[in-house]
Design brief:
The chain is of the alpha+beta class. It has three domains: about 130 residues, Sandwich (Jelly Rolls), CATH 2.60.120.10; about 150 residues, no CATH class; about 150 residues, Histidine kinase-like ATPase, C-terminal domain (Heat Shock Protein 90), CATH 3.30.565.10. The chain is built from 14 helices and 16 strands. The longest helix has about 70 residues. The protein is rod-shaped. It starts with 12 loop residues before the first strand and ends in a 7-residue tail after the last strand. It comes from Actinoplanes italicus. GO terms for molecular function: protein histidine kinase activity.
């Protein structure tokens, strides 16, 4: 079935069904003779050949159909595919303008699915206007109940959806504040320690000057300080074990030369990757055992100052990265619809959910970086990634492996979010995208996360979302077209 397929229906013939024939249909079996007469006069019969398209999803809902004979199939559009939702030959089943009785709210009524005749089929047909009049005039109490039910469901979904978005925003805000607090606190601690070290350096410089150090020795000491700092900047990173061994060596070296509080200074040099060979060279070039003690401490202060400034730089860089991730996640001041690299949204979502993912979950990213950009609503897709990742972490009870993978499949980009949880049973998989369906305890789930994700992916982006699951391997597969969706 394609978007351009024409619907070719035989002319509807009015007055073809008798009252007795109408009464055989379960919808009409309790109606009075007068009501059946009205239906016979206003309804008509229509025949559709095998394979014929009776109505198309998204077209204006202008007719109400009741199956008299034949076999029909209802289907929904998912990306480029037609997914059959119902196949039946039961006489009396109805479809089409089934909500024509609802009060006019200004929103055009459209067919919610497509219907095709699988065999030669015959229908009893009422116009949407006639069907709406019948329901409102003949069953006023039922209409009040049905409208209340429809309005109640819509309001509940809107209210719960809004509450869910607010709860998600609150959780993300709390997580962001938690993530920001760590580097901010680290920067504050480093700044406080830096202030103390700079003050100590000033005092040590005063002591050096008061000790009547020869100008040439003081210049040499300054040169040595710069050389040591430069060497520390280029030193390879050491493991914790290597650093501990180096501290012991440096402590022994300083103890042999009676360096004041050598065991306190040694970790600073070890952290900078400075070994005993460097200190021996410093000792030789100074040529003064009396000056060595003060020089070691002064250079140690300089080294620690550099390390603290690096810590501050790392902490503020982390804050900047988090703010950037938050902007990417929310897409503040950016167009709602644009061509995007899907990996940017995935990465920013993982950053924003870092506090929820926790240390017990190992995150594996298998990205195909050669994938082209896709047309999308990035903020909406980030909501999908948030729902899928959050569900995966909860399914694993915060302990397992979360795998986020991207790859090409035909003309679609696929994002796979997988977890190593216990899996989803076939019974649950059948209903997992239904609104309000949830397996979580009362108060812990609204049942709208996956329903919202489905509507964003399928309705908003012309894509597809499915789930494959077995114990230890559950994957949600989101397919997004490389080309501009018709609904965008």
């Amino acid at each position: 079935m394609t978007d351009v397929e024409e619907i070719r229906l035989e002319p509807c013939a009015p007055g073809q069904l008798t009252i007795d024939e109408l009464r055989t249909l379960f919808l009409f079996e309790k109606l009075s003779g007068e009501q059946l007469t009205w239906l016979a006069e206003h309804g008509c019969t229509m025949r559709v050949g095998a394979g014929g398209l009776v109505l198309r999803e998204g077209d204006p809902a202008v007719s109400f159909f009741v199956l008299l004979s034949g076999t029909i199939a209802l289907s929904r559009r998912v990306g480029e595919d037609e997914v059959v939702t119902t196949r039946t030959e039961q006489r009396g089943v109805y479809m089409g303008a089934t909500q024509a009785y609802l009060r006019d709210d200004g929103v055009p009524r459209k067919y919610a699915a497509s219907m095709r005749a699988l065999s030669d089929s015959e229908f009893f047909v009422l116009s949407a206007d006639d069907f709406g009049w019948v329901m409102r005039e003949w069953f006023p109490m039922s209409i009040h109940l049905l409208e209340g039910l429809a309005l109640g469901i819509a309001n509940s979904q809107a209210a719960i959806g809004e509450r869910q978005r607010l709860a998600a925003l609150g959780a993300l805000s709390a997580g962001l504040m938690h993530e920001l607090n760590n580097p901010a606190a680290a920067a504050a601690r480093a700044t406080s320690a830096l202030r103390q070290r700079v003050a100590a350096m000033r005092m040590k410089l005063g002591k050096l000057a008061a000790g009547k150090v020869a100008p040439d020795r003081l210049v040499a000491l300054l040169e040595l300080q710069e050389e040591v700092i430069e060497r520390a900047a280029k030193a390879p990173a050491l493991t914790a074990m290597q650093t501990a061994d180096l501290e012991d060596e440096l402590g022994d070296w300083m103890d042999e030369r009676n360096i004041t509080s050598g065991w306190d200074v040694a970790p600073v040099f070890a952290q900078g990757g400075i070994d005993t060979g460097c200190l021996t060279d410093l000792e030789t070039r100074l040529g003064s055992p009396e000056l060595l003690d003060q020089a070691i401490h002064w250079i140690g202060y300089a080294l620690e100052t550099e390390q603290l400034m690096s810590d501050i730089e790392d902490a503020t860089g982390r804050v900047s990265s988090l703010v950037h991730a938050a902007k990417q996640y929310s897409h503040v001041d950016r167009a709602a619809h644009q061509w995007i690299d899907v990996h940017v949204g995935l990465d920013s979502t993982l950053v924003m959910l870092g506090h929820k993912i926790g240390e017990g979950v190992r995150v594996v990213k298998e990205y195909d970086r050669d994938l082209p950009e896709i047309p999308a609503h990035p903020a909406e897709l980030n909501q999908v990634w948030t729902n899928l990742i959050d569900n995966a972490v909860q399914a694993m009870d915060s302990a397992g492996t979360l795998t986020v993978r991207t790859y090409r499949e035909d003309e679609s980009l696929v994002v796979s979010v997988g977890d190593t949880g216990p899996g989803i049973t076939p019974e649950v998989r059948k209903r997992i995208f239904e609104p309000f369906f949830t397996t979580k305890p009362v108060g812990q789930g609204t049942g709208l996360g996956l329903d919202i994700s489905y509507r964003i992916v399928v309705n908003g982006h012309g894509g597809d979302i499915r789930v494959e699951s077995q114990p230890g391997d559950t994957r949600f597969l989101v397919r997004l077209p490389f080309t501009e969706p018709a609904s965008a």
